[in-house]
Amino acid sequence: MSKLIAKISIVLCIITMFSLPVYATNWKSVGINRSGAHTYLDLDSIEKIDENTAIFWLRGIDAKKGVIGYIHTMLNKETNEYTMTKLSLYNLNGQLMGMFNLSEISEMSKTNPNPRKKPFNNKYKASNNDRETQQIKKLIWPNY
Fold first, then answer.
1. Positions of E strands within the chain
2. Which of 32, 60, 76, 100 sits between 20 and 30 A of 130, alpha carbons compared?
3. Given CA atoms 113, 115, 118, 119 in this order, what sign does their dihedral have?
């Protein structure tokens, strides 16, 4: 009887494993910034919205600060404008430190009830000479 229960348990485990979603990632290094943090682009997450705009995940690893960040980002290749929509921070042991929906925070900051606090800005503009941005553009738009 116990052998039958063990076989049923194994079959259920196998069925459960194959029914769970798998989040495949294909991280490509795009450079190291001035502070020494390594930046990676998940090639599998790239979603082109239109001819000039794409959404994707970036991963930044800053060993000095002990932080790994995953940033859901939108980039307009013509204007070099980035918009960060989501951010997840982990320590180097893989423990979650915080998750933020940056688009909601940005909306709340527009109606900031405390005028002394600086509003949150989730939009950035990279220079035309930024090497990481150029590398990201080449990975997303190979004919760029």
1. 27-32, 38-42, 47-48, 53-62, 67-76, 81-91, 96-101, 123-125
2. 100
3. positive
**Residues in CB range of 130: below 8 A, 6 or more apart:** 80
Phi-psi region of 81 (alpha: psi -120 to 50; beta: other; left: phi over 0): beta
Are 123 and 81 a contacting pair, CB within 8 Å?
yes
Nearest to 120 by CA among 135, 108, 132: 108
Tens digit of pLDDT for each residue in 22-45?
Answer: 455 799 999 998 888 999 999 999
Distance CA 101, CA 90 (A): 15
Kind of pairing between the strands at 81-91 and 96-101:
antiparallel
- Give Cβ neighbours of residue 132 (< 8 Å, ≥ 6 apart): 30, 31, 33, 39, 126
Which one of 22-31, 51-60, 103-112 scores highest in mean pLDDT? Answer: 51-60
pTM as predicted: 0.72
